[in-house]
Write a sequence for this structure.
């Protein structure tokens, strides 16, 4: 049941990056127990992918007797994580010092946008705000448009939930080796900066122009962009290396010798115009067939439903159907401890009695 089988984690319920971190840990085999608010008890949505494979209890954290039982639970697990604003857990009586006093090997994860300290640590914010301070938001989009929000993939998920999961796993390894736990302070600003580190490096080497659509990887290059087809759908072109670029030109039937000057940025706009006129002559699927099996690095741009049925994703079992919910499968893949989904998101609070009995908690405090 995954390489984290036997590891017990408590998740204090939140939204977005925290639950995503919990999903990753549960996918890897950890026993993740999510604590939700009492007013959420009984809610049930099997499509809530963030809460797959987790156990669910509810607790009123404003009650002293409930906090006493939660601390008893914390004393028996390997890690906890929360996504409240700085200071909230301390006011509840669940801060790191209190928890370490009863469980010195505990890994204590903290998920915030701005971090546990700093000038803006107490302010509200969302993904778009966090990545706006890192250079990421300003780097995405066309030169003649506003910066484009990249969904909430960079701040919430990559720089948030996945960043926290890496931190939790690292601290768990340290705890298992030393017997001593620690706090993991995961800020979405910090995580987003980590994701942008390559571009800061390129910029300082003089290899990056700090303007949208002006560089190799931001849509300026004719060989690294998307193009619209005759049916209104798109193909993605990523023919960076010369040998792949050569195949691109062959498949597009482009013989203009100027195209051999691939890295001449002054020619890129004209090259893009020529390729656009070529691509718009055929449908996306016609181009997919033309480039199929080649190393041109050209692929169809799929919507969500199309992605589920693409032959490569099907051959890799990249999606798995659990009780009528066809969803992305757990990853990465392990040779000795394969992953699977225990179940879709459960009814909130459904595991209350089981958890109380397992950890010798007073269920009357929770129910």
């Amino acid at each position: 049941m995954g390489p984290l089988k036997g590891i017990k984690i408590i998740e204090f319920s939140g939204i977005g990056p925290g639950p995503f971190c919990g999903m990753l840990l549960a996918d890897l085999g950890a026993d993740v127990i999510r604590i939700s608010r009492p007013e959420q008890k009984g809610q049930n949505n099997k499509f809530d992918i963030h809460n797959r494979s987790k156990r669910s209890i509810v607790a009123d954290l404003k009650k002293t007797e409930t906090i006493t039982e939660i601390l008893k639970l914390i004393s028996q697990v390997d890690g906890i994580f929360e996504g409240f604003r700085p200071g909230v857990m301390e006011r509840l009586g669940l801060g790191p010092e209190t928890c370490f006093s009863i469980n010195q090997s505990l890994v204590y994860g903290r998920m915030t946008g701005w971090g546990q300290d700093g000038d803006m640590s107490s302010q509200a914010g969302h993904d778009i705000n966090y990545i706006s301070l890192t250079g990421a938001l300003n780097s995405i989009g066309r030169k003649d448009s506003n910066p484009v929000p990249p969904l909430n993939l960079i701040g919430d998920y990559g720089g948030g939930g996945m960043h926290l999961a890496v931190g939790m796993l690292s601290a768990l390894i340290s705890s298992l080796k030393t017997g001593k736990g620690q706090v993991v302070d995961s800020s979405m600003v910090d995580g987003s900066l980590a994701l942008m580190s390559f571009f800061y490096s390129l910029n300082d080497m003089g290899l990056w122009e700090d303007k949208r659509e002006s560089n190799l990887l931001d849509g300026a290059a004719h060989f690294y962009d998307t193009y619209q087809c005759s049916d209104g759908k798109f193909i993605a072109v990523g023919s960076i290396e010369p040998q792949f670029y050569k195949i691109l030109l062959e498949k597009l039937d482009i013989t203009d010798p100027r195209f051999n000057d691939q890295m001449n940025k002054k020619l890129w706009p004209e090259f893009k115009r020529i390729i656009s006129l070529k691509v718009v002559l055929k449908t996306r699927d016609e181009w997919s067939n033309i480039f199929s099996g080649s190393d041109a690095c050209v692929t169809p741009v799929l919507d969500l439903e199309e992605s589920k049925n693409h032959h490569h994703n099907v051959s890799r079992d990249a999606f798995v159907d659990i009780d009528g919910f066809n969803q992305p499968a757990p990853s990465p893949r392990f040779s000795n401890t394969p992953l699977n989904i225990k179940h879709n998101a459960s009814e909130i609070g459904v595991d209350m009695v089981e958890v109380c009995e397992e950890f010798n908690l007073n269920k009357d405090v929770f129910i």
Summary: The chain has two domains: 8-195+339-366, 224-309. The chain is about 35% helix and 15% strand. The radius of gyration is 25 Å. The first helix runs from residue 17 to 27.
